[in-house]
Structures are given as structure tokens and as C-alpha cells.
Amino acid sequence: MNAPGPAFPALQPDEVFDWLDAEAARRSEAGLVRRLRARGPSTDELDLAGNDYLGLARDKRVAGAAAAASLRWGAGSTGSRLVTGSTELHAELEHELARFCGTQAALVFSSGFTANLGAVTALSGAESAIVTDKYIHASLIEGCRLSRADIAAVGHADPAAIAHALATRRKQRALVVTDSVFSVDGDVAPLRELSEACRTHGAALLVDDAHGFGVLGDGGRGAVHDAGLAGEPDVVTTITLSKALGAQGGAVLGPRRVIRHLVDTARSFVFDTALAPGSAAAALAALGVLREEPGLAERVLTVAGSLAHGLREAGLQVSGSGGAVVSVRAPGPGEAQAWAGACAEHGIRVGCFRPPSVPDGVSRLRLTARADLAESDVDRAVKVVAELAPPGARG
Length: 395
Ligand code: PMP
What we know:
Blueprint: H1 18-29, E1 46-48, H2 60-73, H3 81-85, H4 88-101, E2 105-109, H5 112-122, E3 128-133, H6 138-147, E4 150-154, H7 159-167, E5 173-179, H8 191-200, E6 204-208, H9 223-226, E7 235-240, E8 250-254, H10 256-265, H11 267-270, H12 277-292, H13 295-313, E9 318-319, E10 325-329, H14 333-345, E11 348-353, E12 364-368, H15 375-387
Parallel strand pairs: 1-11, 3-4, 3-5, 5-6, 6-7
Antiparallel strand pairs: 2-8, 7-8, 9-10, 10-12, 11-12
Helix pairs in contact: 2-12, 4-12, 5-6, 7-8, 13-15
4'-deoxy-4'-aminopyridoxal-5'-phosphate binds at residues 111-113, 116, 137, 139, 179, 183, 208, 210-211, 240, 242, 250.
């Protein structure tokens, strides 16, 4: 028999969540309260906060494909992929994604988050080691936690540290996990060096290309393709369909046997309702646009370059060098929130990143470039962000 535990006071039903109020007060004091702002369908605001990098979310070819597919196939997918949720649209999307990115196969998930959860947990376990960059996306971190593998999170963008952790691991099977473009600072991971470290030490490499796909590489084929790693037998890529493609959903791309393994074992694939047909059709249509207009990807980079240049010239502390994400440091979370709020009042919507969304605790404004922004939009955004910068932002 277990020894009796300590006696706790019996709480009334309306008291059991009282502890939430104390937590809320703590967040409020630290400037970490988040507010949901419901936007209308159209706005005069200049949007530099979303992830619609190619400006395709409202493109008639893309949104129209979603509408037509919803009418034909239904608003929802009606079941998990292994039961009734796989339509011809899902199969075609998987075929086209693999063809576009140069991998053997692809598997579509209901989001990038579930794709990451599924890929990490299915490709590791109690009998394996995972080595990660310490700034990987939250969905990858959750995947690592769920995997029960030995985890080593090492210094940011540091292939030597990754190699050292691989060399000193205690489990033979190993997976290295990284973002390609880091979502907070917008910097690009040294993928070739990471791949070399993996090969030296017999590990697989999993790259989350959420922010690189559609933006970097030949015609937007992504950072993994750009590094010459897309078709490699030891490399797995995850992407989201919700950023550059302007749709919704996620995918894992890689060797055929990896994809087969995920179909059978990735719990966020097996037990999740399939992506809605409308979203699959939208992603397919957007992929078609990207094929027809490869210059779109280059245009995002030009816009991002202008944004970063203008903000730097204005004396702000800017990071982000490779993709669409341009990040500006704020003195603290409260200042970041007030700064973003003031920008919104002046018609410029920017992202505000505060702990715990920032791995290093440094709050930032995040501006995302879009292919459909004009130079005059960029100039206006730079002017407003710079003029409203709080004291200390240029420190
Ligand atoms: N990985 C990264 C790097 C991301 O930024 C995001 C989205 N914030 C995701 C994965 C998750 O993708 P999704 O929004 O499609 O779930």
C-alpha cells in the first residue's frame, strides 16, 4: 500500500483554477500578456507581420482553388489520412511537392506543427540520441520532448558543437534537428556543415524549412535544395504550406522509406484528421504559381534586403540575412509591445516577439517581407518603425 500523501485543502469547484489568476498577474507584471486581435477581411494596414511571403493567400488562383475544391470534396476531409481523409488532391500535392523539391517522396500533414511532431518522434526514440540547435522551433522542441530520446541542445548555428555532441553521445542511432531559417532572427543555418558533421558521425539530419521553402533556393525550392541536400538518403525536410504557399498544412519530404515509416508510425499523422481538401487544393495551386513565376521567390529576398537596409541605416539593431524574416531588437518586452502597438496605430502591422517565443529572452519586432510589397511600402514601413523606436532600441 502507498503511504498516504500530504493532506491538501479540499477546493470548491470555483477555486480549482484560482492558481491561473496568480500566473496571469505574474505575466502582466512581466509585460507578457498576449491579446487576440480579430482582423477584418480587408484592412488599410500594411501587413508586415504575417507569413504570406509570396502574397498568394488572397491570390484568386489559390483562394479560388480552395473554394472549388471545398465545393467538390467537402469543407472537411471527413477522417484521418488512413481512413477516409486521403483524397486525390492529397496524393497529387505529395507528388508535386516531392517533384518540386527534388526528394523521393512527401507526406502531407494537417500543419507544419504536426509534421514536425510526427517526423521527430517517428525518427527517434528511447534507443536514440537527438542533437539540436538550441533555437529550434517550438514544434521541434515538443517533438524532442515526446520522443524519449537523449537530447543535447547545443549552441546556435555551431556545427562544431553539433559534431562534439554527436561524438560523445551514448546511443548509436542519432538525429540532428535544426531550422533552416530561424524564425525569430531570420538567420540561415549552416546546412552543408551540419550535413558533414552528421556524415562524420553516422547521424541523420532533419531540417525544418518552414521559412526557406518558397523563398530560398532555385525558384523557391528551399534552403535544403539550395544546399544540395534535398535528394540525399540521410536528410529529411519538413515544411509548412501556410507561409510561402499562402495555404494551410505541412509536409515531410525525404527518402521513400522514411515516408513509409511515417505513414505507419507518426502519431500526429495517424491519429489526426487529414488536411482539408480546400487547403490541399490551395497549396497545389500555389505551387503551380511558384513554378510559373519563379521570380516571386527572388522578389521576396529583394524586399527583405531593402527592409533590413533601411532599418539598419536608421540605427536599429537588425538581424536576418537570408530569408524573408527581418528582426529588430527591442530594449524589453514592454517596449516591444508598445512599439508594435504604436506602429499598428500608424498603419504598419509588425510582429512582436517576447518571451517565451524568443529563445534567448530578447524581445524583438519581426517584419516579414512579401513579394507583393512596393518600394514605397518598404519606405513607409521603415520610416514608421524608425520614428517610433523607443529609447534604447538603438543602443
Ligand atoms: N516551424 C517553424 C520554423 C515555424 O515558424 C512554424 C510556424 N510558426 C512551424 C514550424 C509550424 O507550422 P504551422 O504553422 O504550419 O503549424
